[in-house]
Write a structure and sequence with these properties.
Largest sheet: 8 strands, mixed
Helix content: 10-25%
Radius of gyration: 19 Å
Structural class: alpha+beta
Mean pLDDT: 94
Shape: globular
Bound molecules: zinc ion
Strand content: 25-35%
CATH superfamily: 2,3-Dihydroxybiphenyl 1,2-Dioxygenase, domain 1
Number of strands: 16
Low-confidence stretches: none
Strand order of the largest sheet: 2-3-4-1-13-16-15-14
Length: 320
């Protein structure tokens, strides 16, 4: 047993094209809350959107770098190739009907590890899955989304890693990162971590073709895991380094602090702190309703606002 433990998936970050189309899909159709509009801190000319539950809790966050001129990505190993959200038991059929009504091409209902799921693509080609799970204890789903309570999304269920060979990745997830293998079915190995109701599973599948992925529009850029605070994050930094990976310095992301490294298969991982969270620079009611910049980029606000494509922001939530 490790004396430190990752408590789940923190967020998944992907790449989209048209910013407004991305917002319309994730808020208007999937009913997530846009909890933060900022820029990519490493490339402030592009937006960074965060979607999640009502407060943008770790474990519920899907984020996007908006690169309107990006070419389309190639979905192949080594890459995270799908992100799945949790919905209530017995509501996958309702989701299928609802998405079809909104013009989304959706798969037949499948069963994976005993749970029903559907799969579809977002407007940029990113694979999204919706999986039934036991009644979520999670109570912070975005009730104001306009969707019926039974078909709310309660955070991330799992992420799928597609690898050329899964041996080293499975060993690494288990021995270095402390995940536990809980099942193997149809070429898919499920690893679990943490005990919260969201962000609990990493699935690993093998792509035996020689195709190599290209991370661009419609792809997942990286997968972030949760650590409670910076003290534990530094322990992770040492641990990852001691197993031979190149690990970044601690990066200030304002809503959390981050370190980055690649797992042996090649997928980019991050370990992010749970704190301070999305209310760092906006109140609960105002999350996502204006462009937030980190303090060191405020001096460039006018220039940034002229570069990024204008978007329609959500209205603040009412106080009651
Ligand atoms: Zn990240």
């Amino acid at each position: 047993m490790l004396d430190i433990a990752l408590s789940g998936i923190h967020h998944v970050t992907a790449i989209c094209g048209d910013p407004q189309r991305n917002i319309d899909f994730y808020t208007g159709i999937l009913g997530l809350r846009l909890v933060k509009v900022t820029v990519n801190f490493d490339d402030p000319s592009s937006y960074h959107f965060y979607y999640g539950d009502a407060t943008g809790s770790p474990g519920t966050l899907l984020t996007f770098f908006a690169w309107p001129n990006s070419q389309t990505g190639i979905h192949a190993a080594p890459q995270a190739t799908a992100v799945a959200f949790v919905t209530s038991k017995n509501s996958v059929g309702d989701w299928k009907t609802y998405l079809a009504k909104h013009g989304v091409a959706v798969s037949d209902i499948q069963v994976r590890f005993g749970q029903q799921l559907i799969s579809f693509s977002d407007p940029d080609g990113l694979t999204i899955e919706i999986i039934e799970d036991c009644t979520p204890e999670h109570s912070k789903a975005f009730m104001e989304s306009g969707l019926p309570e039974t078909t709310l999304l309660y955070g991330i269920h799992s992420v799928t890693l597609t690898e050329h060979n899964d041996d080293l990745t499975l060993k690494y997830l288990s021995e270095v990162m402390g995940l536990t293998e809980i099942g193997h079915e149809n070429g898919r190995t499920r690893m679990s971590l943490g005990d919260s109701s969201a962000g609990r599973y990493v699935d690993v599948v093998v792509d035996t073709s020689q195709a190599r992925g290209r991370i661009a529009r419609g792809n997942i850029h990286h997968v972030a895991f949760r650590t409670p605070d910076q003290d534990e994050q530094l322990l992770w930094k040492e641990r990852v380094k001691s197993y031979g990976a190149h690990v970044s310095d601690v990066m200030e992301r304002c809503y959390f602090q981050s370190i980055y490294y690649r797992e042996p298969g090649g997928v980019l991982f991050e370990i992010a702190t749970d704190t301070p969270g999305m209310e760092f620079d906006q109140s609960y009611q105002n999350l996502g309703t204006a462009l937030c910049l980190p303090p060191w980029l405020e001096v460039n606000r006018t220039a940034i606002e002229q570069i990024v494509v204008p978007i329609t922001y959500p209205e603040p939530l009412s106080e009651n």
